[in-house]
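Worked example

This section walks through a single chain of length 91. The input is the sequence exactly as stored; nothing has been trimmed or padded.
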Amino acid sequence: MDADFPPGAGPSSGISVSLTAATLQTIRERAGKRGVSAYLEQAAQRQIERDNLDELIEAFEERNGPADAAAVAAKRAELTGATDPQTGTAA
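Given that input, the structure is written out below as tokens.
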């Protein structure tokens, strides 16, 4: 039985994955042939982070209702230094 490790921890384990030829070619161009495993590990960790964030947002919305779009845009503008709070971008 596998031990429980957080994402990014524990020993490496080999698996077989299927990717389209174009996706694999692009990964190899970006990471180099020997960097494919590290590239996929990092991509998987980012996806796990996104999934966890989606779950947090869903739980928040179940408890509090959907976030106010105008408040989110204003906070995005504040955090990014944007001048247009409606879009979160520079005017």
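What to look for: The chain has a mean pLDDT of 89.
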